[in-house]
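Subject: Protein record for review, amino acid sequence with backbone structure tokens
Category: Structural biology, sequence-to-fold work with a learned token vocabulary.
Format: Residues in single-letter code; tokens as whole numbers, each standing for a residue.
Body of memo: The sequence and its backbone structure tokens, given next.
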Amino acid sequence: MIVLNSPSARWSALTLAVTCAALSAGCGGGAREQTANPTPVEQRRAVVEKEGVTSSPQRAPSTEAPAEQSTGEVPQQILALFQEDAARRALVKPETITVVSATEQQWSDGAMGCPQPGQMYTQALIAGYRVVLQAGAEKYAYHSDQRGRFIVCASGLAFAPVKEQMKQPTPSE
């Protein structure tokens, strides 16, 4: 037997007893009530069918932004970049350049369909475009991403835009 002489010891013991009683009632009582009188599945199904409520599974609302719909067309700004580059290559006016084909393309990696030996490329799908332009008798195949970064792919070799080629220093002899 435990003897509690001080009032604070008695208060602590009383608080502990009440807390334990509340916890045991909360933990065990609800579970017993639930299992003591279970409703059979058939009975619940009958209630639902009787009410005529039929709910089919529904997809939860998406929190993602909707995906951009692509039209399959090459944006005019990107096409203008290609035409300017082709005009500089062929030494003609951009208005004389004709579009042979222009398609949306999913490139398998950063080489954009024109890999070069010894080069390393991003190993991810690249959404972009493939455009073939004609300047006089010459045809130029432009491979690009959606932002307008492009290369000219000719005979399996990738050529940088003319503007970038002009910036590179020439080797001194």
